[in-house]
Inverse folding.
């Protein structure tokens, strides 16, 4: 939206109180005072460490033409007072950028585990179908072939709408995005028009934020509750639900969209059978409305069968030919940091995976077990300033489904790493495990102790290339450290 005045922008907020007269021209919307320029609206957001209301005066000095705030600020430009600036930001951003998601096909993926892999699979299928794609997720944002780093799985609403506007400008025809429960709860996706919403699964995570599993389930459900309330034959909306997860029954009742289910164990619209798991990947037969296909995938594990079923269903309801979907799924080699093998000459299977919930860790270890001749090692930790109740559960999963468990640091953040490890140990009294606070030392230990035929699973960080200790972020890549440890071992062997 260019060459607009304040009153035009404010039509997105039917209920607000304006202090001071004036109808200045608006050139941008910002929630970071450092990015304010002449003609910006500056939105004061109260964050965990900084309150934007404190920067209102500085924003005006930099050229802000108006301020959006929740509480009084003493500035010389018009101030728009609202009860909730985060909510107002989503509404203003979508309106200012002229609701860009209405110009392309948008698929949202939510769930505890599998969001990243499923999103990447969908994007690959869309590209194979000739679509110009965009993607927003845990690892990065993509607009066509351009990759942009991200801080959150789902960005703040302002960043999100700016990104969608860029996608529209760059000619994106289809996009896929991971949608976190935090984002849904905080309204970051308000003003975003989804055509397809995909649910992967629901297991314990983020209870530091949502408090209870019911609250967590409800937050995920917001994606489906906001989907397809106006059913139009020319613009149908679809909820793609995992029939094997009981939360899907709740989401089915919450949405007005067409419901398409996928699964393995329960009756579903799209389902898999004759699943064959090997070290080289996975083969299975997929049934879909009016058709059947056999898929030979390079992705390992039953959990990846679910990811492929979800991607197949999302692409299928998006109008893509089943044969093209099948061909693409068979070509995909994998996603960085998701069951990623670290090559070596020592006959040790070293696997780096993002598994950071009890369920995802169990899934990975269950996949590794039948493919391993020797012992299964696992290196696991828990992040600081996050859900403490899952720490003993992570430890239990590590000990129960491996032969050798090593507990170590993940991203301790502001917490004492020893306190985090103690929380883990509380769940595995009288069981065998090793504790090594230093993550590099833990990885070196497991790989040095592993013998030919063993498997070493390094869990928790996956694609991440950093570790957060206190207020410092240092470079740390599990894959790099594993390669270093493997090379050392190969040198000793030589």
């Amino acid at each position: 939206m260019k060459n607009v005045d304040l009153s035009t922008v404010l039509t997105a907020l039917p209920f607000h109180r304006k202090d001071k007269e004036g109808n200045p021209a608006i050139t941008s919307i910002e929630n970071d005072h450092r990015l304010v320029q002449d003609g910006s609206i500056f939105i004061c957001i109260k964050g965990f460490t900084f309150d934007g209301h404190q920067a209102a005066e500085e924003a005006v000095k930099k050229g802000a033409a108006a301020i959006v705030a929740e509480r009084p600020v003493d500035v010389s430009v018009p101030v728009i007072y609202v009860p909730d600036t985060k909510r107002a930001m989503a509404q203003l951003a979508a309106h200012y950028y002229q609701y860009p998601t209405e110009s392309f096909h948008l698929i949202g993926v939510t769930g505890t585990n599998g969001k990243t892999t499923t999103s990447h699979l969908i994007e690959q299928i869309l590209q194979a179908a000739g679509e110009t794609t965009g993607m927003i997720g845990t690892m990065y944002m993509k607009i066509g072939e351009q990759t942009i780093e991200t801080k959150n799985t789902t960005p703040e609403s302002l960043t999100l709408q700016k990104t969608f506007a860029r996608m529209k400008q760059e000619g994106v025809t289809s996009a896929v995005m991971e949608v976190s429960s935090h984002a849904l709860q905080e309204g970051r996706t308000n003003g975003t028009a989804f055509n397809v919403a995909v649910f992967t699964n629901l297991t314990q995570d983020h209870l530091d934020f949502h408090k209870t599993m019911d609250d967590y389930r409800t937050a995920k459900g917001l994606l489906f509750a906001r989907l397809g309330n106006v059913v139009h034959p020319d613009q149908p909306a679809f909820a793609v639900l995992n029939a094997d997860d009981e939360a899907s029954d709740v989401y089915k009742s919450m949405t007005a969209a067409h419901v398409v289910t996928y699964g393995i164990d329960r009756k579903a619209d799209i389902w898999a059978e004759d699943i064959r798991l090997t070290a080289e990947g996975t083969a299975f037969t997929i049934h879909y409305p009016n058709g059947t296909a056999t898929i030979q995938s390079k992705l390992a594990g039953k959990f990846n069968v679910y990811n492929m079923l979800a991607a197949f269903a999302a692409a299928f309801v998006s109008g893509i030919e089943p044969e093209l979907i099948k061909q693409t799924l068979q070509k995909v080699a994998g996603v960085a940091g998701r069951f990623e093998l670290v090559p070596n000459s020592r006959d040790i299977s070293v696997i780096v995976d993002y598994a950071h919930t009890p369920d995802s860790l169990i899934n990975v270890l269950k996949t590794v077990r039948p493919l391993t001749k020797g012992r299964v090692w696992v290196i696991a930790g828990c992040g600081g300033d996050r859900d403490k109740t899952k720490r003993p559960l992570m430890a239990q999963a590590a000990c129960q489904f491996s032969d050798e468990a090593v507990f170590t640091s993940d991203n301790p953040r502001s917490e004492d790493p020893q306190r985090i490890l103690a929380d883990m140990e509380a769940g595995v009294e009288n069981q065998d495990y090793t504790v090594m606070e230093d993550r590099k030392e833990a990885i070196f230990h497991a790989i040095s102790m592993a013998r030919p035929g063993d498997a070493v699973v390094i869990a928790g960080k996956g694609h991440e290339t950093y570790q957060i200790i206190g207020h410092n972020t240092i470079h740390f890549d599990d894959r790099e450290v594993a390669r270093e440890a493997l090379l050392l071992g190969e040198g000793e062997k030589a």
Q: What stands out?
A: DSSP finds 16 helices and 26 strands in the chain. Residues 302-317 form the longest helix (16 residues). The mean pLDDT is 92.
